[in-house]
């Protein structure tokens, strides 16, 4: 399957999840983290999903799915244990709606990749639905390479970039500073917990005249 990779902003986007078991719970958790407006339809649900409903983090309907549930939904996920029920969800979708059917990549207009997340840093791994097990294996390997220190490092680089962009420098000067900030020493200081030294060196860099 040939897919176009992209990251999307789901803030306040209406999303429907049909099913409320363990698989659905993982998918719902990701949607909630993305600040989507989630509606769940299922005959039963896990305790965690019930808790999310009690906390008003999502809308829960404990009943059978109806095609009317699709109205105004941007994304639909069918994650029940019933293949026929999942197929019914797919058939009810409109062409403009994005749909993901659990364990049926051939029926999906989008798939959810295996993810490595370190704060603002996100690395997505996908085999186009051909072998999810391989994607998960590669994710575990990537998690070892991209350690937890990358969360702080990514935040540091983002903050420094904003400072550089507000210095009123020429484009060439900005590129020189931003390239210097990507030098391995800044990552090593982050990794070693030498945050004060890292920030001090970065501050001094901003006040030096760039030399090409």
TrEMBL record:
Q: Which Gene3D superfamilies match?
A: NAD(P)-binding Rossmann-like Domain (3.40.50.720), SirC, precorrin-2 dehydrogenase, C-terminal helical domain-like (1.10.8.610)
Identify the Pfam families for this entry: NAD_binding_7, SirC_C, Sirohm_synth_M
Name the reaction it catalyses.
Answer: precorrin-2 + NAD(+) = sirohydrochlorin + NADH + 2 H(+)
**Domain Siroheme synthase central residue range list:** 118-141
Identify the domain of life: Bacteria
Which keywords are on file for this protein? NAD, Oxidoreductase, Porphyrin biosynthesis
One biological process GO term for this chain?
Answer: siroheme biosynthetic process
* Name of the protein: precorrin-2 dehydrogenase
Q: Which organism is it from?
A: Brevibacillus panacihumi
């Amino acid at each position: 399957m040939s897919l176009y990779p992209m990251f999307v902003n789901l803030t306040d986007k209406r999303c429907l999840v049909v099913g409320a078991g363990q698989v659905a719970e993982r998918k719902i958790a990701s949607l909630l983290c993305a600040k989507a407006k989630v509606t769940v339809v299922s005959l039963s649900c896990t305790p965690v999903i019930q808790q999310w409903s009690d906390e008003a983090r999502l809308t829960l309907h404990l009943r059978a799915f109806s095609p009317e549930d699709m109205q105004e939904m941007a994304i639909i996920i069918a994650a029940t244990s019933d293949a026929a029920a999942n197929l019914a969800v797919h058939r009810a979708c409109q062409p403009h709606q994005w749909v993901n059917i659990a364990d049926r990549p051939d029926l999906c207009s989008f798939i959810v990749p295996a993810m490595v997340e370190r704060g603002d840093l996100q690395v997505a791994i996908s085999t186009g639905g051909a072998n999810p097990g391989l994607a998960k294996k590669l994710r575990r390997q990537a998690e070892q390479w991209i350690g937890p220190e990358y969360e702080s490092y990514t935040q540091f680089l983002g903050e420094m970039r904003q400072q550089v962009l507000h210095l009123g420098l020429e484009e060439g000067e900005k590129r020189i500073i931003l390239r210097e900030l990507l030098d391995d020493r800044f990552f090593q200081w982050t990794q070693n917990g030498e945050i004060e030294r890292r920030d001090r060196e970065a501050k001094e860099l901003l006040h030096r005249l760039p030399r090409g």
